[in-house]
Amino acid sequence: MNINRTINFLGLRKFFFGVAIVLMIASLGSLVVKQLNLGLDFTGGALVELNYSEAADLEEIRATLRENGWGDAVVQNFGASTDVLIRLASDDPDLGNQVADMVKRTEGGEVSVKRVEFIGPQVGEELRDQGGLGMLLAIGGILLYVSLRFQMKFAVAAILALVHDVIFTLGFFAFFGLSFDLTVLAALLAVIGYSLNDTIVVFDRIRENIRAMRHTDLVEIINVSTTQTLGRTLATSFSTILVLLALFWFGGENIHGFATALLIGVGIGTYSSIYVAGGLLVTMKLTREDLIPPQIEEEVDERP
Amino acid sequence: MLNRYPLWKYLLIAAVLVLGVIYAMPNLYPDDPAIQISGASSTLEIQQPDLDRIEQALAAANLPTKGTELGANGRSGLVRLVNRADQLKAQDVVRDALGRDYVVAQNLAPTTPDWLSNIGAGPMTLGLDLSGGVHFLLQVDMEKAIESRVNVYQSELRGLMRTEGVRYRSLPTQGNTLQFGFADEEQRSEARRLISRQYNQFALETTERQDQYVLQLTLTEAEIAAIRDYAVNQNLTTVRNRVNELGVAEPLVQRQGADRIVVELPGVQDTAEAKRVLGKTANLEFRLAAEPDAARATTESFPFRSSQGRVADVERSIIITGDQVTDAQANYDENGRPQVNINLDSHGGELMNRATRSNIGRGMAVLFIEQRQISRTVTEEVDGVMQEVEVPAFVEEKSIISLATIQSALGTQFRITGLDSPAESSELALLLRAGGLAAPMHFVEERTIGPSLGAENIAKGVTATQVGFLAVLVFMIIIYRAFGVFASIALSFNLVLLIALMSMLGATLTLPGIAGIVLTLGMAVDANVLIFSRIKEEIFNGMSPQRAVHEGFDKAFSAIIDGNLTTLLVGVILFAMGSGPIKGFAVTLSLGIVTSMFSAIMVTRAMVNLAVGGRDVKKLWL
To answer: In terms of pTM, does the model score above 0.90?
Structure first.
């Protein structure tokens, strides 16, 4: 993949910033209005996964649970019509087992318990805090590393691009009401790593070109750099998306959220490292001097 | 000369590859489902006839076996089964065949060939989500820990003031603050002098109220921190001992955070049994038997644990608690009667000595305290509405397990005699040794993963890895042709290396971990993509192929390092912060980045050098 002509990415940067801002507002909006559908890991409660020998009758299971006073239980198929997932809000560690027994007795066919989980509400709360803190730490570490290896303006641009990706992915999960659990959080942090990787490669080329090409304006340099790395950006994203699709289709229900978050994140991360990160550098007025400190002429000081 | 590697580099790469293959190999041998047996007491040996008997019983129950093995120390035995689904049934059959003296547990037996295990190669440890099993998270009740320590201090201080002739009045304890009242200021300053000389755990304060001179002793922050730390560590030891009683192979018992303990029992499905043993929040107290003429207010009466209806009066004040017992052994005295030898820690020994030297001839009781978790209903505001909410609460049940006469002043080592039977002495020893909990605990997290789900997760993970891997290989070969083949070989190498490294480090593979491996495969080609696209670019700019290859590798290097180091940074933070699934993912992600840098840079370079180095290449097949 070789692009012989420099693409004028930044010519449309006002438009793409507009798109980014609209996306951010929409994402934040759905986060506020619909909120994240937090999974058991974060909310606490009990979860039971059952496997029936024949297609399970969800209504019957719900009825049984209602009779036993668990009307607010969420009962749904999980991956296959024979697999059922039951979720309850609870702070009783033994409830999962009780529910499993309760439901087992109602069905005619054979039922096996695949898993039973209980998470105390307090644990969930802590995980939420920990996850948020982890995210902040990751962002802080990156800010520091990029500032040291590149320059402050690069770091800020990279972080803003990252925040953009993370918020969009979160917004996506909120908008479609997808369950947000620990694996999704892990995926989100992986998105940070991936998207940063992407951005850094572009930045690396911008830095190289600023040093090598004299007397060219910044917009031109960024356009050239983005074009030069475009083939690589697309190839890597494509191979990553290939494996993620494999995970999504073949990895099973338990990994769906993870694969979804990464697919969205890698997609938006690729977009943002092409359009958002570079554009931000222009907005922040990156100059040659930011990378190559001008020589201070010593004589100046000696004159009165 | 451009694009030539020295011989040692090729040799190094070959050596790493060979080692990688060898250490990744054990993962090709899946574990056998097995039943493990061990004696319930340390004296009980497992012999070949026992195993033969089990095999016959299993054969009679129509459960096929693959063979039996004796443990190296003669204390355990293993029966390998053919089917995973038979495990639970087989466990019951074996239990029936052997009787109550043996611990029978489900297990997974490795099938790694001897020559591999001899060089320390073994398969990756599988997380519970892949192997099936139970995961518990226990929370230590710190308030109770501090409360019980405050009580111990209170009786110690009372004893101190009594022996020194300081007259005091006990006032109610407020949280971490003990209070004593005195009739005049001299008494108070005498008490203050005494206490501050022997105890530095307290911040002392004086107040006056209702004609009383009050001395307030508040536990210092450092002491509270020490109590918390002690409570968790003591409970950790106790839980470990109890888990060992379950006979589970490779259990994991670990402290998590400030006040939690994680227990993972691979292969266990019977949560009720595991919870019963772990949740047994027992503690012990040593107290003096009450004098016949003692005031009612200073004594309490408790039933005996073994014989119903029998009751005894003991003093309210506690000499020591079970967590000060460091060791206990059941054996027999000179006359062949059962006894228990006890070792205390030095603080406990001192307290015991102080209490017993003036009380020879009196009885001393060992109290067993059981804390059972119940649900209590309280009215609480939930989302602005008053509701009945169930909260976990504890009830304490105390009973006497032994009442023996003090023969002489006791110290850190002493024995309890006058026990009815060897069974009683061995139970007492076990309880003492298993240790009391320094504080009650409750379950805050519980996960049971069935073996079928585990197997399903592995199968799906493997399929996803294979499909993803193939897709990337095809993609790379399509867009980079010959160089795509190099990248594919490097990627295969990377996968082998990653598996070998995880096996060697003893990292635990989980489902998110497999996802991490798959993701790594997708991202690992990035370094190759960077290099190859750079080479193409250089050729496009008119460089000779030889030169372009050289420059391509060179120039891509800084981008590869920067890109990967930042991702690695995220991986390390994830590992440090996360627990459970996040940690499993972070491990494979971080290791994958390290191995992929090696394989994508070094290995690809070696292959490219072998193919084009030192040759007059007109055109690269790229």
So the answer is: no
